[in-house]
């Protein structure tokens, strides 16, 4: 591996996005993602279909990433892939591909934890400030909601997490009640911009420590809407914006209550957000506002690095390689890969 310039191929296939990226040192040369529209009609990700689509997409996506970056397979110094957590049938496609390529090219590989990668996306060089250690990262995706203390790129401690649904699930499940297609998070975001966040009040949980709970919100929205529809069958249609804004406001309040608490208790004021839900425009602007009020230095990922992508896998791979944490051919995908190695 050349020390001056390190070219990494990142591969992500944990859920329903097949993605490949080329990272040169800490700069992204390409980041190509094939999203799977097939799941929309089922209202959620169908694992068997996701796996099949990854098999179809992986070679064209890697090819496109190489071409876009103007590099060839010979230029690759390191292969980084998502080992887990995620859907088993999806993870095995990326893992098997990475292992074969590593063998064929005789190049080292590193196995990346998907949630670590969401956090480490902040270290992609975009010419903007990067968080200083230790920092707190609120990681909010379709499968996870965590408050993480990041001590270094390879030392992260989970301080709190959801006890039921993830924040992304809260968006998607309530969006489904409103009749939006899957994934509904971006639809709530869009309609919330035109609505009144205080129009309706939904239940907020009382959870200990730095944990979260979102399952009560879904139930509260469902019962409220059922009741209103009896009085007015057009209730959802007529109140789409206010409902979206109020749901989003409730989710953000639940998140920020714990975020403020963790910052106050730890004294850490370097605050980042990561994961698919960090694409939410309400969350992004609220973090800016809170940051100004509470003297936080806030870090918001570039939009394309919020939802699943291989650029974040490549940068996470760089840190693993720097720490000599290479994988060998015995590695396998792990749908429940633990956040901290025991
Ligand atoms: O990180 P991600 O792409 O995949 C997982 O690792 O889960 O996150 C996907 C989640 C979905 O629940 C999706 O609805 C949510 O991120 N999401 C959003 C927005 N964009 C994506 N939620 C709210 N507002 C958005 N703009
Ligand atoms: Zn993700």
Describe the 3D structure.
- The structure is a single chain.
- The protein is 42% helix and 19% strand.
- The protein has nine helices and ten strands.
- The protein has helices spanning 47-69, 88-105, 114-120, 167-177, 185-192, 215-231, 235-266, 281-294, 311-322; strands at residues 7-12, 17-24, 27-35, 78-84, 109-113, 135-140, 145-152, 155-161, 270-274, 297-299.
- It has a five-stranded mixed beta sheet with strand order 3-2-1-4-5, with helices on both faces. A five-stranded mixed beta sheet has the order 8-7-6-9-10, sandwiched between helices.
- α1 (47-69) packs parallel to α2 (88-105) and α6 (215-231) runs antiparallel to α7.
- Bound molecules: 5'-O-[(R)-(carboxyoxy)(hydroxy)phosphoryl]adenosine and zinc ion (ZN).
- 5'-O-[(R)-(carboxyoxy)(hydroxy)phosphoryl]adenosine (KG4) binds next to α4 and α5.
Mean pLDDT: 96
Low-confidence stretches: none
CATH architecture of the largest domain: 2-Layer Sandwich
**Silhouette:** globular
Record the SSE blueprint.
Layout: E1 7-12, E2 17-24, E3 27-35, H1 47-69, E4 78-84, H2 88-105, E5 109-113, H3 114-120, E6 135-140, E7 145-152, E8 155-161, H4 167-177, H5 185-192, H6 215-231, H7 235-266, E9 270-274, H8 281-294, E10 297-299, H9 311-322
Parallel strand pairs: 1-4, 4-5, 6-9, 9-10
Antiparallel strand pairs: 1-2, 2-3, 6-7, 7-8
Helix pairs in contact: 1-2, 3-9, 4-5, 4-6, 4-7, 5-7, 6-7
Bound molecules: 5'-O-[(R)-(carboxyoxy)(hydroxy)phosphoryl]adenosine and zinc ion (ZN).
Zinc ion binds at residues 114, 118, 141, 275-276, 308.
